[in-house]
Amino acid sequence: MTQKQNKANQQNAKRSTGPRTALGKTISSQNSVKHGLNQAIDFESDTRLTALVNLLDKEGYSQDEAYSVALAILSHRRVMEACAEQYVAAPEIYGRTEIALIEDLEGDIELGRVKINYSDKLIIQRFKTRVIRENEKLGSDVMQRVKRLGKLIRYQRQSVSQISRSIREMQK
Amino acid sequence: MDKDKLQQSLTILNPIRTVNLQDETGNFESILQGLLSDIETPNTLSVLLCEQIAESIFWMRRHVEDKELILLEATAEQIDRARGGYSRDRTCTAEDVRRILLGDTELKQEIDTKLESAGMNSVATSFEGCRAKAFLSCAKEIRIADDLIQRQMLNIRHLQKSLDAIDVKSRIIKRMDLELKHIEQDLSAIEHDPEAK
User: Does the distance separating the beta carbons of B19 and A167 come in below 8 Å?
Assistant: First the structure.
C-alpha cells in the first residue's frame, strides 16, 4: 500500500457513518436485538457449510479456499435474510393497543353501558390527536421499511467485501 | 445452446440453493435463469454467485418501486392536507397521483380546482406545488432509498467481478486442458505412425 493510498484511507475513515452522540449509540446498541447481525455466529454446525465445502473441494479448490468462500457466502446469506425479514416486518404503530381499548370504550358509551364526563372525553380526544401526530412522524409502511433497511446497508457492504476478498485470495 | 447451459446450471444450483425469497411475482426466478443461461462454464461457485447477483437485482428493483411509492404517498398526503384543512380524512391515494403522472389530465384538473377553492389551504394551490412539497417532506427517506439502490448496484459490481475472475480462470483451465489433449493426440499419432513426423 503506497503512502498516498494510506493517506486517502485515513481521510475516508474520518467519514464514519456510525453513531456519534450518546443517544445515537444507545439506540444502535439495540440493533442486535432487532436483527441479530451484530452478534457473532458459528457456522460450523451449519450443514450448508459442509455441503458447500465438499462441492468446492470436488471442483479442485483447496480445503482452506473452499472453507473461506463457503463461509463468506453463508455470512452474506445471513445478512440478506435479515434484510428480507426487515422488509416484511410489521410496521410500528403508535398507540395501537390503546386505540383498540378506546374504540371498545366508545362502543360501550354508544350502547349506554358506560358514561364518561366532559374532561374524560377531552382526554380521549387529545390522546387520539397525539396518536395521529406520532404515527405521522413514524411515517407510512414503506417509509418505515426503507428506514429499517437503511440501517443494514453497512452489513451488506461487509459481507459482499468478504466474498470478493475470499475469491481474490483463491485467484492468487 | 443457452438452454443447455441453463439446464446444466440449474442441475448444479438446485440442490444447493441459498436464496429463498417469498416472491410470488416470479421476478427473481426469471432474473436468475437469465443470468444462468449466460454462464460460460457452469460450476458450483459461478452458479452461487449468479444467485447472489440475481437477488441483488431483485432487491434493487424493489427499492426503486419503494422510492416511487414514497413520493406518490407523500404527494397524496400533501394534496389531502391542502384540501382538507384540519380534517384528517384521506381521500387522495398514491394510485390517484400515479394516474395523474401517467397523463390523467381530467383528474389533475379536478384536483387543481379543489386546491384553488379550498379554504385554509396553506400547502399549495396546484398539483405541482403539492408534489414539490412532498419531495421536501420525504427527502430523508428518498435519500435512504437512493442509498439502498446504490448499495445493490455496488453489490452487483463486486459479485460480477468475482464471477468474471472465476469464469475466466475456468475458461483458461478448460482451454489449457483442450490444448493438452490435442498435444497428447498429436504425440500419440507420431508414436503410432512414424511417417507422421
Answer: no
**Is this prediction's ipTM beyond 0.85?**
no
Q: CA dist A100 to A104, B44, B84, Å? A: 6, 53, 26
pLDDT tens figures, A121-169: 999 999 999 998 898 889 899 999 999 999 999 999 999 999 999 999 8
Which amino acid does the sequence have at B82?
A
- Chain A window 93-132: which residues touch B at a Cβ cutoff of 8 Å? 132
Contacts of B19 in chain A (CB under 8 A): 77, 80
pTM above 0.90, yes or no: no
Cα distances (Å, whole numbers) of residue B187 to A91, A169, B33, B173, B183 = 72, 37, 42, 21, 6
Q: For chain B, say whether A69 makes contact (Cβ under 8 Å).
A: yes
* Cβ-Cβ contacts under 8 Å, B49 against chain A: 163
